[in-house]
Design brief:
single chain; about 140 residues; mainly alpha; about 0% strand
Length: about 140
Amino acid sequence: MHCYSYIAHKQDTEDVLSEGFIKVFNNLSKVEYRDAKSFEGWIKKIMVNESLMFLRKRKMIVYDEKETLLANTEPIINTELEAKDIYNLILTLPIGYRTVFNLHAIEGFSHKEIAKMLDIGESTSRSQLTKAREKLKKLMVKTNI
């Protein structure tokens, strides 16, 4: 699921998952198993990194460098939101927006960490997150979610 949230194309996601699991299996002997949660986190990190490498290799991540201000920060009132609906809307975001949004809002990375991972400026990371949020709000209103 993590790879698909970055890649969003089934065949490419399967390729990235395969590469990720090859790395997992090749490095199992190097892992110090503490508990299931830390092991799951290790695998998740590999999958996220594989996804980012895939996007970088294919130069698929395009960042809009123009700064924008968040025009309206009112919360969305609809309490009937379904996680799958939001997830599907996230998948429609441009790759640059989606990547930063996933890393920050879902994975919990700071803008400093994202900037380092993606070789971009912290301000670019912030801008992409702001634009992703704006676009998601518009999509939610448009689709009546």
